[in-house]
Structures are given as structure tokens and as C-alpha cells.
Design a protein that fits this description.
Layout (H helix, E strand, L loop, with lengths): L7 E2 L5 E3 L2 E3 L1 E4 L7 H22 L1 E5 L6 H9 L4 E2 L18 E3 L9 E4 L11 E8 L3 E2 L2 E5 H11 L1 H10 L1 E7 L13 H5 L4 H11 L2 E4 L5 E4 L7 E6 L2 E5 L4 H7 L11 E3 L7 H11 L3 E4 L6 E5 L3 E5 L2 E2 L5 E8 L1
Parallel strand pairs: 4-5
Antiparallel strand pairs: 1-4, 2-3, 5-19, 6-22, 7-22, 8-20, 9-19, 9-22, 10-21, 11-18, 11-20, 12-14, 12-17, 13-14, 15-16
Helix pairs in contact: 3-4, 3-8
Cofactor: Fe(2+)
Pfam families: TauD
Protein name: SyrP protein, putative
Length: 333
């Protein structure tokens, strides 16, 4: 059996990024016929795939034999990254697991937009890679926007250098509210027990203390927790002769999508020194992001591998009778 070389293709709307495009798109020419072929093809091409991912920030695999949570698990596992289970994360988005490593992207209602963010950047522990698998595309809408965070930060430095400096030097703190019970109607509705993986308030407080959080219990049994100082900008070092810094955070998602935050941003996000972030700065970041965003319109069977440091992602609302099913696996390397 002769496996294909990497078959790159172009799709409308790709961004030009120095000597690469965003996202990179690889199409199966038909020679990868089953999971065994897929594993062999990934192993054979892994050095180039990893180089392309570092250069581009995201790779879309189209036409490969992936059609279920189990086959997606096998496909994503073939990259040999260390698994990052949702159970061990500190995200408070509601998800449903299919296998130990594969779960739903988000259980928020289809009319709810999930704004651009780096996966779990609002917590002290986050994955470095995000795999997406489209089991069923929506009838209308449901694209996954992908944004190059290095290009966004470069533009922010040009347009608002003082603000960019504050983000880089001060970092961010996030305050989240975790309900007493899972709320499936909310994109951020995972309870404090589920989020922290604990059974009691004492266990919750011990875990929060170990991670450097501050917290407050509310009269309805919910938990308000504030992170230690987390980065807003991350230096990825030298990539092909260029020093790359990325706008690595949950700022846009928090400002535009978290309940009540647009009306009172400081209730959920501040600089690391507890000073408020200027609203015009938040608006500028959200506006600039659109210039560096590609809307990935899913086809059934698509798999995307996203470098969680280089690229933000989100979810557009969708409609129609066909339920959109996009699954996720997280990894560290």
C-alpha cells in the first residue's frame, strides 16, 4: 500500500500569513481508506504536520475516514500527544463525554453564540492542542470561527501600544460564577462540583487555595471564584526567524458572551493588578479580531487540529432541524 503525500488545497477566505495560510487545508485523495491507513499516514507525515501546524496555527483534514466519536478518538490519538481530559479541566462550560478523551464542543443552545477564546485560558491549566470533529454539520450556520492571535496582537500593538503593554505586563484576572447545579441552558453552566471535580465545599476550597484562587460562597449555594494573575499575552519564542507573541486569553468571550459582563466588565475581567480594563480597549480588541478570523464552515467528517496558543476559536449560532454535532479532544505536548 502506498499512502499519499500531504495534499494541500485552498479554500475561499483563507488568510495569508507570511509564507503560510490560515487555516491550512489537507484533503484525502482517496488513498487513506480506513483507520489503519489514517494512523500510518499521520505517523509517516507527523514531522511535516507539526511544522505546518506551528506555521499556520490550524489544520483542517477533509475527506478522511472519521465518522464517529470512536474513530475520531483513534485519529486524534495517532498524533501521540498527551491526553487532556475534560474531567481534569477547570472549565465551567457544560460538556458530554463520549469516550475518555472525546466530548461535545459545547451544550449551549443553538441560538447562543460562543465568542472567540483560547480554550481554558481563563484557568491556570489549559491544553496546547484542540482537535475538533464534525459528526453532523448544521443545516444553516454553526461555523467555527478561527482567529490568529499573533496577528491580532501585532495589530493591537500598532493601534494601541499603551493598551498592548498593559495587557502584556499586567496580565488578567477572571471572576466566574459557578452554579450549585449544572445549568444546561447556559454556555457557562457547569456547577462548582463538576468544574472543580469535588464533592464538598471543603474540597472545593482546598483545590481553589492550591491553585491560587480567591473565592466567595453565595447565598444560593453558587460559588464566585477569582483566578490568580494569568497571562494576557504569551511569548511563543522564535518561529521561522520571527519572535511571536500571541494574545492568549478569554477576553473577547468574557466581554461579549458572559452574562452581565458587557454592562459591567470589571465584574468578571480586570487587569492583574485589579484595575479595570478600558471599555474602548475591550471594544477595540473585539473589533480587530474580525480582521484575522476565518469562519470554518463544517462538512460532515471534517477534523480540525488547532494550536491553542496560536489560534482562538468560537461557535456561530445555527438553525434547522438537523442537530449540529461537533466533538472535541484536548491534548498537551
Amino acid at each position: 500500500m502506498t499512502l499519499q503525500a500531504i495534499n494541500y488545497t485552498q479554500v475561499p477566505g483563507q488568510l495569508k500569513c507570511d509564507d503560510s495560510v490560515f487555516p491550512s487545508v489537507i484533503v484525502n485523495d482517496g488513498s487513506v481508506k480506513n483507520l489503519s491507513d489514517s494512523k500510518a499516514w499521520i505517523s509517516q507525515n507527523l514531522p511535516e504536520l507539526e511544522l505546518e501546524l506551528r506555521r499556520s496555527g490550524a489544520i483542517l483534514f477533509r475527506g478522511f475516514p472519521v465518522d464517529s466519536a470512536e474513530t475520531f478518538d483513534t485519529f486524534s490519538s495517532a498524533f501521540a500527544y498527551r491526553n487532556f481530559t475534560y474531567k481534569e479541566s477547570l472549565s465551567n462550560a457544560v460538556r458530554i463525554n463520549f469516550t475518555e478523551r472525546v466530548f461535545t464542543a459545547n451544550e449551549a443552545p443553538k441560538n447562543v453564540e460562543i465568542y472567540l477564546h483560547h480554550e481554558m485560558a481563563q484557568t491556570p491549566v489549559s491544553p496546547s492542542k484542540v482537535f475538533f470533529f464534525c459528526k453532523k454539520a448544521a443545516e444553516e450556520g454553526g461555523a467555527t470561527p478561527l482567529c490568529r492571535s499573533d496577528m491580532l496582537y501585532e495589530e493591537l500593538v500598532k493601534q494601541a501600544p499603551a493598551l498592548a503593554h498593559d495587557f502584556a505586563s499586567k496580565g488578567l484576572k477572571y471572576t466566574t460564577h459557578m452554579p450549585a447545579a449544572d445549568d444546561h441552558e447556559s454556555g457557562q453552566g457547569r456547577s462548582w462540583k463538576s468544574t472543580l471535580g469535588v464533592e464538598s465545599k471543603e474540597q472545593a476550597e482546598n483545590k481553589l487555595a492550591d491553585l491560587g484562587y480567591q473565592w466567595k460562597w453565595k447565598s444560593d449555594g453558587s460559588l464566585q471564584a477569582t483566578t490568580p494573575v494569568l497571562p494576557a499575552v504569551v511569548d511563543l519564542g522564535n518561529i521561522k526567524g520571527k519572535q511571536v507573541k500571541v494574545f492568549y486569553n478569554q477576553l473577547i468571550a468574557a466581554y461579549l458572551g458572559w452574562k452581565g459582563v458587557k454592562e459591567n466588565p470589571a465584574s468578571a475581567i480586570t487587569f492583574g493588578d485589579n484595575t479595570p480594563i478600558p471599555v474602548d480597549g475591550l471594544e477595540l480588541v473585539a473589533s480587530l479580531a474580525g480582521q484575522f478570523t476565518f469562519d470554518l464552515a463544517w462538512q460532515d467528517g471534517d477534523v480540525a487540529l488547532v494550536d491553542n496558543y496560536m489560534a482562538m476559536h468560537g461557535r456561530k449560532p445555527y438553525s434547522g432541524e438537523r442537530k449540529r454535532e461537533v466533538l472535541v479532544a484536548l491534548a498537551m505536548n
